[in-house]
Amino acid sequence: MLSTEIGSAMEVSTFKSMDSRVPILDANSLSRVLSRMAHEIAERNAVVSDVVIVGVQRGGVGLADRLGGLLGTIWGQPIPTGSLDVGMHRDDLNHRGAHEIYPTRIPFDVTGKTVVLADDVLFSGRTIRAAMDSLNDFGRPKAIQLAVLVDRGHRQLPIQPDFVGKNVRTSPEERIRVELKESGGDDLVFLEKT
Which of helix, strand or coil describes residue 17? Predict the structure, then answer.
């Protein structure tokens, strides 16, 4: 009898955790959103050789690679992509625990280029501010454009994206989770309600 009660309790807790996840984008809609974003980037940037894409570690790296691949198909030439860790440029270093360092890989000069910063979720704007500060360590871009998969609002800094996959209004306590194949996920974006 005790094992059935425990089993029932586990099933209820699993159901509650699944119930708190609200799907936003599945694999097909994610693919369509990224294709649209790539076309918007292509329309806005006439000089192909000036465009490079840099993904903000961790969530933006897979997006940068995908956008780079899509733009390469649209423009008929490879688009340089890189990754950027912003941990040492964050303004909350003394409020957080130890920050895990991820590789920064920018195998091209950003000076005079239009850098498209790619990130998965835009929230307060502080990560993007840190990314712009970090990017300046590698040169002086002609322009920086921001591409985000999900803009969830609640900005604390005057930062707005140039290209948005989906706007999702959330409460500050809710979270947006992005799972991509590149990081072992299933190409799924969902809202976690608390």
Answer: helix
The Cα 85–Cα 58 span in angstroms is 8
Query: For 92, phi and psi rounded to 5 degrees?
Result: -120, 30
User: Does the structure show a pLDDT above 70 at 5?
Assistant: no
- The encoded tokens of residue 77 equal 């030439």
| Structure tokens belonging to residue 13 | 């807790």
Q: Assign residue 171 the CATH number of its domain.
A: 3.40.50.2020
SS3 content of the chain, % helix, strand, coil (to 5): 40, 25, 35
Q: Which amino acid, residue 190?
A: F
- Distance, in Å, from the CA atom of 48 to the CA atom of 74, rounded to the nearest integer, reads 10
Distance between CA atoms of 113 and 183, rounded to whole angstroms? Answer: 28
CA proximity to 106, closest of 67, 144, 138, 145: 138
On whether residue 168 sits in a domain, the answer given is yes
Look up the pTM and report it.
Answer: 0.84
Average pLDDT over residues 95-110: 80
Q: Containing domain of residue 161, as a range? A: 19-88+102-192
